Amino acid sequence: MSKPVFHYEQRRLENGLVALVPFDPTKHVTQFVKLIKESLADLFKYVSFPVIEAEADFIREVYDKISASPGDCLYAIFDKTTEHGEENSNSAGVISLTATNPANAVTEMGVIIFPAFQRTHISTNAIGLLLLWILDPPSAGGLGLRRVEWQTHAENQASRKAALRMGFELEGILRWQRVSPPGVGLPVEALEKRNGTTGELPGRHTAIFSIVWDEWDQKRPKILALMDRKR
Asked: Among residues 59, 115, 63, which one has the least CA distance to residue 91?
């Protein structure tokens, strides 16, 4: 199990409703893996994700890779409106930063909310807290980055709506940008015929959204208002 090497000090982020806690396998992995296994069909229709049968699979295939990358960090999301401890049933999902580049002052956000907490205050507040940390200037406790991206399968309407709701702007569609899970995405029969291959995964067009620093002052009050609404 590797020690996180993220470019920035990864500190706890929270308000009265949600806490984002740096993911600690010794505390968080058991409940997380249990909920992942229960929610595979709902969570990963549009996302390629390793097969997770046991805690060791998650540590090896996901956590250790994130921890070894200076550009990546992972938070566990907890619902503070319940009375349970952080290792129990208020585990609401995870949120991450990837491809973080201090030289260019950019990063990419990703979020997984467990089904029981979808369409609640969790997503709005978790994303909002991370946006405040990313885009607020250092004088206000933020990282002062210039750009945060949100990437999603172009057919994932729920993810696209969530990005727009949280102030992200659609920049465009990257065609055939990556592979998709089996059964989801663009067919590859013609590609296999051309390349003389078999068993290739489907492809996907990726919708790219962003928020940038010079629009953040305008967008920030709207994000806070959404968080105040608790949904």
From this structure: 115
* CB of 37 closer than 8 Å to CB of 100: no
DSSP states along 54-115: SHHHHIIIIIHHHHT-TT-EEEEEEETTSSS-TTTTTEEEEEEEEEEETTTTEEEEEEEE-G
CA neighbours closer than 13 Å in the CB half-sphere of residue 74: 22
Rounded CA-CA distance 209/190 in Å is 30
Whether 46 contacts 53, CB under 8 Å: no
Query: What 3-state DSSP class applies to 200?
Result: coil
Span 69-102, pLDDT tens digits: 999 999 999 999 976 555 455 899 999 999 999 9
Structural contact between residues 204 and 186, judged by C-beta atoms closer than 8 angstroms: yes
Question: What is the rounded distance in angstroms from the CA atom of residue 79 to the CA atom of residue 126?
Answer: 10
- The second-level CATH assignment, the architecture, of 13-228 is 3-Layer(aba) Sandwich (3.40)
pTM for the whole thing?
0.93
Domain assignments of the chain as residue spans, ordered by start: 13-228
